[in-house]
Design brief:
single chain; alpha/beta; Molybdenum Cofactor Biosythetic Enzyme, Chain A; two-stranded antiparallel sheet; 21% strand; globular
Length: 178
Amino acid sequence: MPKIDETRPFLAVQIGVMTVSDTRTLANDTSGQTLVDLITRDGHKIADRVIIKDDAAAIVAQLQAWISRPDIDVVISTGGTGVTGRDVTTEAFESVYEKKIDGFGELFRWISFQKVGTSTIQSRATGGVARGTYLFALPGSPGACRDGWEEILKHQLDNRHRPCNLVELMPRLEEHRK
């Protein structure tokens, strides 16, 4: 059974939060704020926060800038993962990945199905790794952000989570570059 190993010290990770939206501002970005609140409540650090327009090139540029920064371990975005013409977050993220984490999107949709039923097929939530940085894209609603954090990322970004977690793999993410 999964559990927290209290004998291990908690290690905070540095997280960049990106909201993808043509209409949101910091004043009305409830999804991004939900992520910030949950991340900091659970002891992690917000390294940066931005709002980016629904533009694949702009999203890729921001991802590239963040994965080049040694003070950002993880990027979590909200918005732009649907199926409309303006939803380009998934394509932007996947163009940057060195390795896709297929299980993230699969698990997110399974969790979402429990709450919204078949409407979950509209979600293209995705996760991957690029240059030693984890990248996760969530749908643009506070509920989806809460589900993605509370049900998946909170646990996988806690180095005490057993039987395994993503944090303990961080030192090995760039082994292929050595």
